[in-house]
Amino acid sequence: MGLKGWLFGKSEPPVVSEANWRQVLALPLFDRLGEAERSRLRTLAERLIRKKTFSAAAGAEIDGTVCATIAAQAALPVLNLDIDSYGRWQEVIVYPAGFVPEREEMDEIGVVHHVRHPMSGEAWEGGPVVLSWEDVGWSGLCDGYNVVIHEFAHKLDMANGAANGLPRLHSGIRAEEWAAVFAPAFEDFCRRVEAGEETQLDPYAAESPAEFFAVLTEYFFELPEALHQSYPAVYGLMQRYYRQDPLARGPA
């Protein structure tokens, strides 16, 4: 089946086989889940595959393995929420490896520069999620790195508009409470990174409040012990937000 025909509605998206699901659900990321949670995760992942278009870029191939691997990991953060929490955007774009988009950036004196930065993933406000398949392959190993969860966390963050580290909160969590926990943790983490301290969490989290939220979401699901040890109050708030407690599920 050609990808071109699929994108223009002339054929169906790739079939995800039972073997694909078995392979994906064998990732360490899902070791903590019970059978009921695994079943619900697969149902959510299948919904995501039906709702989104998976498109290839730069020679990548879209097959059942690609769809299942991305959808299952994206479904985990919303396991007790809903796929619609990610918004109404339509497309997941997959590159074979890291990609280098060209951007315009203005410096402090107002000069616009054309810059190229290698990326493993990005999420556009109102637009697609873009992922490097090579980096997806390094995700789900419970080492704190997960490009799928990271970029889909940005989509949760963007439910209120531009990503700023404050997702759309459900009942029981107030924005003031969220800020009272996240703001001092972010300031503390930035201070530690600037001081050259070794941290359990990826220093990239100090880039902005949005990256802090996305990186900490990676750790919440991949290495919850590290997040809980570093910022227990943040872990507790994310536990309430995601309506999950990875630590309570036992070790991966």
Please identify the top-level CATH class. Answer: Alpha Beta
| Secondary-structure arrangement, i.e. CATH architecture | 3-Layer(aba) Sandwich
Q: How far apart are the termini?
A: 37 Å
Integer count of domains: 1
Counted by DSSP, the helix tally is 10
Task: Give the mean pLDDT.
Answer: 89
Give the CATH topology.
Collagenase (Catalytic Domain)
Binned strand content: 5-15%
**CATH homologous superfamily heading:** Collagenase (Catalytic Domain)
Low-confidence stretches: 1-11
Write the H/E string, N to C: HHHEHEEEEEHHHHHH
From the helix content, strand content and strand pairing, which structural class follows? Answer: alpha/beta
> What general form does the structure show?
globular
As a percent range, the share of helical residues equals 40-55%
Q: Strand tally, please? A: 6
Give the spatial strand order of the biggest sheet. 1-2-6-5
As a whole number of angstroms, the C-alpha radius of gyration is 18 Å
Q: Describe the largest sheet.
A: 4 strands, mixed
Write up what this structure looks like.
By secondary structure, this protein is an alpha/beta fold. It has one domain (3-249): Collagenase (Catalytic Domain) (3-Layer(aba) Sandwich), CATH 3.40.390. The protein has helices spanning 3-7, 18-25, 35-51, 64-75, 133-136, 147-157, 175-194, 209-222, 224-230, 232-242, and strands at residues 53-56, 91-95, 102-106, 112-116, 121-123, 129-132. It has a 4-stranded mixed beta sheet. A two-stranded antiparallel ribbon has the order 3-4. Helix 6 packs across helix 8 and helix 8 (209-222) crosses helix 9 (224-230).
